[in-house]
Amino acid sequence: MPRTSKTETPVSVDEPMIEGRYAELGDYTVGFETHRADFDPAPLFSGLPGDRCQCPHWGVVRAGKIVFRYADHDEEYTAGDAYYGAPGHVPLLFAGTELIEFSPSGPLAATMAVVTRNVAAMKAGT
User: Fold this and answer.
1) Which of 32, 52, 55, 121 is positioned for an S-S bond with 107, CB 3.0–4.6 A?
2) pLDDT tens for residues 101-118?
3) Class of domain 11-124
């Protein structure tokens, strides 16, 4: 059975606001994320349906908190919580938060293609 751990998964995202380690386990991506700064990534989802993440996520908050904002309500998860983030959310991230998150790789890749394009545009100043 496939498995991984944070220490075995190489760093693939190392930005001032996040360190992310991601590995493929079957048809799922497991992410080990450490959020270094408060961050509202809403602009990064521009171009997705409703300008919201359409990928479902299952996870555990190891430290800190995460908020999923939906069109009609917010859901807050704190250290020790297991969570499900349904499609149609925008996360709100906080410094000191550590997550382990599982996402279906196909929908995650489609979402990240848009996010990556938006990050590149922001860095280019457009």
Assistant:
1) 55
2) 999 999 999 999 999 999
3) mainly beta
Q: How far is CA 119 from CA 5, 36, 53, 92, 126, in A?
A: 27, 17, 15, 17, 10
Beta strands in the chain (DSSP E): 11-15, 18-25, 28-35, 57-63, 65-69, 74-78, 82-85, 90-93, 97-104
C-alpha 81 chain-centroid distance = 16
Task: Decide the pairing of beta strands 74-78 and 28-35.
Answer: unpaired
How many CB atoms lie under 10 A from the CB of residue 116? 11
The count of residues in the chain is 126
Angle at CA of residue 35, ends 63 and 70, nearest 5°: 85
Can you give the residue ranges of every domain in the chain? 11-124
- Specify the pTM: 0.93
